[in-house]
Amino acid sequence: MKLPRTENETPNSQSGFSLIETTIALLVMMVGALACTSLFVFSLQNNVGGSERALAMAVAQQQLEQIRSVNYDDGTLTAGTITSTVRNGERNYTVQRTVVDETNPVGGAKQLKRITITVTPQTAGAAWMRTPVVLVSQRSTIATGNYLVVN
Q1: Alpha-carbon dihedral sign for residues 111, 117, 118, 122
Q2: Which residue in 16, 17, 30, 56 has the fewest CB atoms around it within 10 Å?
Q3: What is the pTM of this model?
């Protein structure tokens, strides 16, 4: 059923959006766009932080492999802490190498060395991006003398 036409209505009249409705719609879309933008920035920062940690892990593994390649009696395995700066992937990293002599619980002689490599990125980003990567390894001498035999 068709409603009767009012006096102000013409046969070709069209209804549209008012200025207030348009402004409210734009504000809602702007809030949604800003939320998406902040999410994009957050994910970009997380990707950069992950990249920093991956490169720091690579530096730590390189340092540990260098130490593993030397003999047990080499001077680089002297107990103590050495701090240096390493550049990798156009980024600087602080490398702290700590060697500690430990006693073997069976023999009592100093036959173990605990090696700790700590690599910290030197970036200007957020503090969580500069968390250190730590690798710990142990080296031992070739065993000599009586061996414990378990049947």
Answers
A1: positive
A2: 16
A3: 0.63
